[in-house]
């Protein structure tokens, strides 16, 4: 999947995105989705951290490189971790490192006004960038929690202007996270580039979910916007329990699973 193909879906076909952190899961998802995001959410669902903030860029590159090995069709997008794009110079250095070392097709970064010059710099050097506004997880400690955005006329206007500025800076798409659905629709209608929603209603150009949330694997908290398509936690725990019981009772391995002379 190319950037041009993603852009071509605007207003025509919903974009399907999902996270992945390794080649195995990426290969299972690749057939069905348009975008696979190596999100900094891996710091919570994979590393059991309380937020995304202490994820390092080398760790993010490691996981993106692993996912690359499982992706044949989808566009591979990588999150720029917190602290890796605080200036244009730093952002270009780290984004270039991402593209070269991991094989990502594009990067994603959070921010409104502060992201404009960074996106201009990266796209000017040939690096495709997806923006991210609304609820920005990398601001969680600064804001004192995860706050829904886009309530009221002034907030809706501000977010719409921010999205338009990121589009003008060169972003090929924008993630809208935790945005009131009416505001998300307003932003989507105002842009020529696609919006990808997470917790922002049905009127965005696409949707993204963290795979461990939608498969019912993550045992932390469950946001309102997450629909569990599988009770993965129960299924896996039951399977491992059965395996353990069979080993202890010597029901496994039987002759069927043993080599004989």
TrEMBL record:
Its cofactor is Mg(2+). Pathway: Cofactor biosynthesis; (R)-pantothenate biosynthesis; (R)-pantoate from 3-methyl-2-oxobutanoate: step 1/2. GO terms for molecular function: 3-methyl-2-oxobutanoate hydroxymethyltransferase activity. Signal peptide: none annotated. It is an enzyme of class 2 (transferase). SUPFAM superfamilies: Phosphoenolpyruvate/pyruvate domain. It is found in: Cytoplasm. Mg(2+) binds at residues 40, 79, 110. 3-methyl-2-oxobutanoate binds at residues 40-41, 79, 108. The active site is at residue 177. Catalyzes the reversible reaction in which hydroxymethyl group from 5,10-methylenetetrahydrofolate is transferred onto alpha-ketoisovalerate to form ketopantoate. This is 3-methyl-2-oxobutanoate hydroxymethyltransferase. It comes from Campylobacter gastrosuis.
